[in-house]
UniProtKB/TrEMBL annotation:
Keywords: ATP-binding, Nucleotide-binding, Stress response. Pfam families: HSP70. This is Heat shock protein Hsp70. Transmembrane segments: none annotated. The keyword ATP-binding applies. GO terms for molecular function: ATP binding; ATP-dependent protein folding chaperone. InterPro entries: ATPase_NBD (IPR043129), Hsp_70_fam (IPR013126).
Length: 458
């Protein structure tokens, strides 16, 4: 048996073909789980940091480098500022070292908790570490030990999927087709795609898979759409997820195999709307736009997927910020509270996709504190993403000779009316077909995996 795995930014799922039918893997009572991992063991406290002779040497090296850079730029170096910045960098590197020590990695990953249970356990325990959406970091410029840690996290997520599927199907699963976006989120351009695939390949083998191949997610969705249509026609698949937006032009249906002609993608998705909504509707309660706290502090607090930014946010001092924002920011720094806030932002986005108004209590920050968000705030928060989506779809339409017969819309964000309207407007001559928002890709991956397994056996 060969498994299809959708290792998603927000949620992950898996499925296989049994007796000619797609059978999803069950994770408890659910068919998917939030791509979130909780490590119960407490990480090293930042207050344990002290300058050893080796660290002091590194500080001096950074000061010398900063002084040379300043002189080369025609600036007068400020020794106090240079030392303060150097210590901050060394302290951050020291914290990251503690997370990535073999002692930490082995113990923490072995006791990991996954999905919504990870959030619940993190909130209950009030200590440990939470990693949300690790897929979103795979294409970033990673220090070698950071890469090792991300590989370890991906390994345990994939191992969790493989073992769960093996128990359900009563067979030791050793082969899989893994979905991938057209463009991973990346800070290093095309090299980020190669790095992300290398990490996932390494993680899959370490997770107990003997072989793994990759299929672009819109191509997988095209495979799912193909098996349900008898007549051959052209379609454009639009797959909008948490971290990426992928599009494919394919010929599907009929007795011939589906043919993907071309794929496009951008490293943007639902999490970008989450960030914009958090900054616009929630962060003013913490002084954004009111105090002199730099905007990037609020971005660090909102981006729960970025472990480095989360650590940076927890290191800031807010005792001099005017009341009541000082206490609120300090409360937001408490363990688990940025994750609680993000969960609220996600719920707000989903609610406002259907309702005109959403209220959210923030008693975990301050008794009686809450936010009242109007639907217009979501529209405004989604505007930048929608502009990028419109641009991508316009490019697709321009590069196609004729309009497709259908546009197949899938992915978690496809539930939102403003997404459906934007996609429909880009292809007015085509019939819009709504796929399964959560499982369109994984079903296609299951079909692709089964087809490849048959070819290998033959």
């Amino acid at each position: 048996m060969k498994l299809g795995i959708d290792f998603g930014t927000s949620n992950s799922a898996a499925a296989a073909i049994v007796d000619g039918q797609v059978v999803p893997v069950r994770f408890g009572q659910a068919l998917q789980f939030r791509t979130t991992v909780y490590f119960p063991e407490t990480m090293r406290d930042p207050d344990d940091f002290s300058l050893t002779p080796a660290l002091e040497y590194e500080v001096e090296r950074l000061i010398d480098s900063g002084r040379r850079d300043a002189l080369a730029a025609g600036r007068t170096p400020n020794n106090d500022s240079l030392r303060r910045d150097a210590i901050r960098i060394v302290r951050r590197q020291w914290m990251e070292e503690q997370v990535r020590e073999p002692r930490s990695s082995a113990a923490l990953l072995q006791n990991a908790v996954y999905g919504d249970e990870a959030l619940d356990a993190y909130f209950l325990e009030g200590e440990g570490s939470l990693v949300q959406s690790p897929k979103s970091m795979l294409g970033y410029n990673l220090h070698p030990r950071a890469r090792q840690t991300m590989t370890g996290i991906a390994t345990h997520v994939l191992e969790h999927i493989r073992l769960t599927a093996s128990r359900q199907f009563d067979i030791n699963i050793r082969h899989a087709t893994l979905g991938r976006p057209v463009q991973f989120r990346s800070s290093i351009g095309e090299a980020g795609n190669a790095q992300a695939l290398e990490i996932l390949q390494t993680a899959a083998i370490a997770a107990g898979l003997d072989s793994v191949d990759f299929l672009e997610e819109p191509a997988a969705a095209a495979m799912h759409y193909h098996v349900s249509h008898d007549s051959r026609h052209d379609t454009v698949v639009v797959d909008i997820g948490g971290g990426t937006t992928d599009v494919a032009h394919a010929s599907v249906g009929g007795s011939a195999a589906p043919q993907v002609h071309r794929a496009w993608g951008i490293a943007r998705g639902g999490t970008d709307i989450d960030l914009a909504l958090s900054l616009a509707a929630y962060m003013p309660l913490f002084g954004r736009g009111i105090t002199r706290v730099p905007t990037h502090h609020y971005v660090e607090a909102a981006m729960v997927q970025d472990m480095t930014r989360q650590r940076e946010f927890r290191l800031h001092k807010y005792q001099d910020v005017p009341a009541p924002f000082d206490k609120r920011l300090q409360a937001l720094q408490d363990t688990g509270n940025t994750a609680r806030l993000y969960r609220g932002v996600e719920a707000c986005k989903i609610a406002l996709s259907e309702l005109d108004r959403h209220q959210d209590a923030l008693d975990f920050i301050e008794r009686g504190l809450g936010v009242d968000v109007q639907a217009g705030a979501l529209v405004a928060s989604a505007s930048n993403y929608l502009d990028e989506l419109e641009g991508l779809l316009a490019q697709v339409r321009t590069e196609m000779a004729t309009a497709p017969a259908t546009v197949f819309l899938t992915g978690g964000m496809s539930r939102a009316g403003y997404i459906r309207d934007t996609v429909a407007a880009a292809f007015p001559e085509s019939r819009l077909v709504h796929g399964d928002p959560s499982f369109g890709v994984v079903q296609g991956l299951a079909w692709a995996a089964a087809q490849d397994a048959r070819l290998s056996d033959g």
